[in-house]
Amino acid sequence: MLDQKGRHADAQRYYLTALKIAPEEPSILSNLGLSYALAKNLREAESTLRRAAAHTPVDPRVRQNLALVVGLQGRFSEAESIARADLPPEEAAANAAYLRQMLARRKDLHETTRSARADVN
């Protein structure tokens, strides 16, 4: 709920406290990893989601969230490989392609915005 309100630091403190009670609990690690991702701390998100995915059995949602975070960092082949553990190859490839397109559009938008600001100055 805190993450939904944009209060990522508060949510992360909550998850870290929960991990003191239940160390290495995959569901808590997964939520913490997603909180880091929402806060745009992708390296910490990846590290935390990898910890969650190291537990067996692995919840497929944890692995798909890990694939998403890896893809958001531009490592599309690796993201697709992670996603294939739970998805058909075509779906994993489509997800990686979608991430690639989304990031390319975001980059184009950022460059256009930056160029427009430079023109104004």
Description:
- It is a single chain.
- This protein has 121 residues and is mainly alpha-helical.
- It has a single domain (8-120), classed as Serine Threonine Protein Phosphatase 5, Tetratricopeptide repeat (Alpha Horseshoe).
- 76% of the residues lie in helices and 0% in strands.
- The protein has 6 helices and no strands.
- Helix 1 packs antiparallel against helix 2.
- The chain starts with 7 loop residues before the first helix and ends with a helix.
Which features would summarize this protein structure in a list?
single chain; 121 residues; 6 helices; flat; Serine Threonine Protein Phosphatase 5, Tetratricopeptide repeat; mainly alpha
CATH topology: Serine Threonine Protein Phosphatase 5, Tetratricopeptide repeat
Distance between the termini: 41 Å
CATH-wise, what's the superfamily? Tetratricopeptide repeat domain
| Helix content bin | over 70%
